[in-house]
């Protein structure tokens, strides 16, 4: 990973950190009490992560649908959930 800094340091340098992520494509880890708690990353990294998560969600949904032997009508599900 790229740079690391405390929350206090990040707060003091926020605009510069955003510029570093935007233009230099740097990743900055934010620490609290020595532990990573957040990151400032280029938007492209975030968009890629979201695409990966979406792909995983679709695969899991397809697997669940293919493994399901019983089809339950929405009305039945709503009734069981008290909706």
Automatic annotation (TrEMBL):
InterPro entries associated with the record: Antitoxin_Phd/YefM, YefM-like_sf
Top-level lineage group: Bacteria
Pfam family, one: PhdYeFM_antitox
Function comment: Antitoxin component of a type II toxin-antitoxin (TA) system.
Family (UniProt): Belongs to the phD/YefM antitoxin family.
Protein name in UniProt: Antitoxin
């Amino acid at each position: 990973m790229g740079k690391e800094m405390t929350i206090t340091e990040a707060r003091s340098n926020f605009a510069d950190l955003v510029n570093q992520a935007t233009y230099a494509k740097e990743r900055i880890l934010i620490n609290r009490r020595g532990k990573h708690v957040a990151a400032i990353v280029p938007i492209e990294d975030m968009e890629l992560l979201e695409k990966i998560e979406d792909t995983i969600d679709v695969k899991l949904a397809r697997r669940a649908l293919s493994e399901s032997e019983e089809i339950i009508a929405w009305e039945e599900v709503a009734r069981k959930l008290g909706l």
